[in-house]
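Recap from last week: sequence in, structure out.
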Amino acid sequence: MAVKAKTTQEFVPIKEIRQGIVILRDDSLRGIVMASSLNFALKSADEQQSIIMQFQNFLNSLDFSIQIFIQSRKLDIRPYIALLENRQKEQIGDLLKIQTREYIEFIKNFTENSNIMTKTFFVVVPYTPAMVTSDGVASAFGKKKTEAESAEKKLGEFEEHRSQLEQRVAVVTQGLVRCGIRTVELGTEEIVELFYKIFNPGDTEKPIPLK
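Predicted structure tokens:
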């Protein structure tokens, strides 16, 4: 008997992304906050100690878990090269054209030999509604949630759960700001783009479409 191959979507635990919230298959929610970096080495000893204490206080103040995710990618210099090449075509003088071309070659050689990486920092904030339990626990304490629940009730539950998640996100962002870290909560489009790049890392190797 032939084994049916699983599709890629079956390995992705995401059910949908709505209003900047990731909804997993178990109906738990995730908010994603992008955080800036700190040049810790350039801080004075007192500043370093203050940052460490603030971060320690931030972690101790949490009554829920968080996930810190660091995305490392090779710097894609192609958009910048394309911009320079367009500028070269617009140059009037031959000397400027030559200088621009030499600068383009320098940037290409430098990035290829140095293998420059970019790092982006994210904090994933979870919220699991109380109703999300195993079948055994649900059966022991009452009737399981029926499939005939109205759309209006589901919407109300989502808004309630989203409000609880947003409160947690606010706690995280305020704690990071006290440490001197800038934050921004990702919206739906940014989250879709983030996950697309995670599951399609080879796209950075594809040629940029010509306009």
